[in-house]
Each structure stands twice: as structure tokens, then as C-alpha cells.
Amino acid sequence: MVLRSSSRARFGRPLAARPRPVAAAPVDEALSTIIPEPVSFSELALSVAMQNTVAELGYTMATPIQAGSLPFAMAGRDVIGQAQTGSGKTAAFGIPIIERLDPRDGPVQALVLCPTRELAVQVHDELTRLGKRHELRSVAIYGGDSIGRQMEELRQGAHIVVATPGRLGDHIQRRSLTLANVRVCVLDEADRMLDMGFAPDVERILRQCPPQRQTLLFSATMPEWVRRLALRHMHDPETVEISTRPEIPSEVRQLYVQTTWADKTDALAQILDQPDVVMALIFVETKRTADVLQAQLGGRGYQVGLLHGDLTQRERDRAMQQFRASHIKYLIATNVAARGLDIDDISHVINYDVPLTPDEYLHRVGRTGRAGRAGVAVTLITPSEILKLRDVEKHARTHIEPATLDEDFPALVVSAEA
Ligand code: AMP
Description:
The protein has 2 domains: 2-241, Rossmann fold, CATH 3.40.50; 252-414, P-loop containing nucleotide triphosphate hydrolases (Rossmann fold), CATH 3.40.50. Helix content is 36%, strand content 17%. It has helices at 5-11, 48-56, 64-74, 89-100, 117-130, 147-155, 165-173, 190-195, 199-208, 224-233, 264-272, 287-299, 313-324, 358-365, 386-395; strands spanning 79-82, 110-113, 138-141, 160-163, 184-187, 214-219, 238-241, 252-258, 280-284, 304-307, 330-334, 348-351, 375-381, 401-405, 412-414. The strands form 2 sheets. Strands 10-11-9-12-13-8-14-15 form an 8-stranded mixed β-sheet, sandwiched between helices. The chain has a 7-stranded parallel β-sheet with strand order 3-4-2-5-6-1-7, sandwiched between helices. α3 (64-74) runs parallel beside α4 (89-100) and α4 (89-100) crosses α5. The longest helix has 14 residues, at 117-130. The radius of gyration is 23 Å and the shape is globular. The site of adenosine monophosphate has 11 residues, from α4.
């Protein structure tokens, strides 16, 4: 795309801080990390207006994902940022968008795709805060809200559109917006978009954006589809990977229980019967396991909520609300669907399936023991899975104790180490 000369001058500003990859402690290759050097916003080549805005927001030091990706994104490069919610990734793409767009170029210059309505609203709010000194208008469009009102908002002109893929598709069909002028496209929480079933919509939308646009992709994990998406739709992307390993608080007891495939649901039921189980989050690897397990537990009289990507937004909201309000004690979730589920009262995290990676283990277990409370994390393993668990334990640099379930009395007994 041809950039206006005024914009080009802005793009050409020298960038003060370049992220320098630093060798992290020796870790497994899958966890290798680029650690950007700490950098303050005043060292980054931002406009005075943006410097003032971030200062007003109380941001002094750039977070690692910001320090790592901002220089590349500001230079117009495609970036893959591997970072979690809460890492400051909205400003990591929001600042370059706001700095690089020109209000005179009209709508729609930047498109941010988000997996959920909540995230779309959050991103729109942050962009509005960051853009308060720039004459750019952001509009959020998402399902479950009046399409007529959104069309009216779009008619008033939107330089930036923050959207969920399904609803964006509706607007494109109704011709209430066009993607022909998009210069920057952001895929926020790409792995979650996959989990929510948005993969075909995302691909279709990307094909409708001008091919020479800049693409910024953020994802906490890198499933195959996300890798393929990057290969197919990005130009020579720079990858910034931030390790956001949650520390497991010492108040969290980490246990594993050996069982068999046939007895797994029995073992789970015995754990759920423990008197100290106040609120339990049960992790499974697939949506199918989640459905089957809910039916099995339901058949045994347990009222269990369900959270996975094949459910509608309304169903997911309902499950979360019921769990949060303690109307249901147990919630079955797939990894990605449970992201953003920050509830301080979760007493137990149960890994019905052994997590596939150390990071997945740490993120699941990090859902308990929040706000200084005690918590228990129990992983169920079948005999052949002990090595898998040991591997997770080693690379997550943590310790998981063996425990047994008493046959006669449903007590979870921590065994002496072998
Ligand atoms: P995000 O991951 O974008 O949802 O950001 C998480 C929170 O961190 C938000 O409340 C942001 O306002 C805040 N935040 C983002 N960047 C910074 C920064 N550099 N310093 C302090 N807070 C920040």
C-alpha cells in the first residue's frame, strides 16, 4: 500500500530501543523465550502526544510484550506476539495503530479481531484511552448487540474497528463497512478464536483485507492452525515470545492420583466429594471429553457447568455466572475457554486429562490459590502417563506429590514419596 508522505515521515522515525534476545535459563525448546530488555516509554520513539497519554495512564515502563513488539510494529513489520491476557498486549498493538494511522485517511484503517464480546469492549476502551490525543475514532462491533445501532456508529466513521469475527461478517455482507482500506490488521487471542470456532471467518476476513497490510498476531499458545495462519497471511513476521509462567503459590498443594481409564470418572467423583471442595474447576483436553464427562457426572447426580468453544456466547456467560455466583460448585472447561476465568474462590483445580505442556499445567493450576488463599491441584493419571507427568513436573520446575483415594472413605491421602 502506498503511504502518504506525511505518514511515511512518521514511520521513519528512528527507534530507540530494539529488543535484544537474551538467552534465558536453559529450558526446553518449546519454552524458549526472548526476553526484551526493560525499557521505559520515554526511550521508545513515540510522539509527544502518546508519551503524555501513557504517562497519564500511569505507564512508565513498557511491559515485556510491549518492549519486545513495539519497535517492530512501529516500523511496520508483522509481529507474532506470544503473550497472555494481562500482559499489556492491547497497548502493544494499540500504540502502533494509533501512532501510525492518519485521521485524514478515513475509515477503516485498522481492524482488530477478538474472540469475545468482552474482549472487544475491553480493547475498544483501551484504544479509546490511548487515542485520546489523536483524532481517531474506534468502534466496537460484536454479536448480541443491536446491528442497527452498530451500523449507525459505522456510518459516523470508524478509523479503527474492533470486532468479533461473526458479527464483522454480517456487517461486510450488509456492506456497512469495507475492509479495502485496512492498513493494520490485529488478531487478538488467535488461539481462542480457533477454540470459539471462528477459524473460517478469520481466514475469510483476512482474504478481504489488502494483502500489503501489516498483520499483528497475538496468541497465548501456538496451535497448528495459528502457525499456518501466520505462514499464509503474514509477511516475514518477527516473533516475540514472552514467558508469562505463573508462579504457583506455596499455599497450593499439588497432587496426582493414579487411576485407570475405566475408573477415572469414579476417582473424579470421589475427589468432588471431599469436604474441602468448595469450588472445583475440572480441566479436560477436548470439547468432546467435556460433553461426555458432564453427562456422566450429571447421571451421578452432580450438577456441573460446562465451558468450551462450541457453546454460544450466551451459554458460556451463563456457565461462568452460575459458577461465579456459586450456583454450581463444579465447572468443566477446556484450556482456552477457561482463560480469563479469574475467580478467587476456586478451591480445587482438577486435571481430568494430563496437561500436554508444562505451561498448560502452570496456567491451569494457577486458577487456584489466588489472593493468598489455599488451594489444591489434583492431576489424574493412568499408569502409562506417569512419564508425561514427570516431564511436565521437571520443565515446570515444580513438585507434584502422589496421593491415593481411600476405597471405603472418600479421603484424599497424600502418600509418602516413593
Ligand atoms: P492487557 O493485557 O492489554 O489487557 O493489559 C492489562 C492491564 O495492564 C490493563 O489494565 C492495562 O491498562 C495495564 N497496562 C498495560 N500496559 C501497561 C504498562 N506499561 N504499565 C502499567 N500498566 C499497563
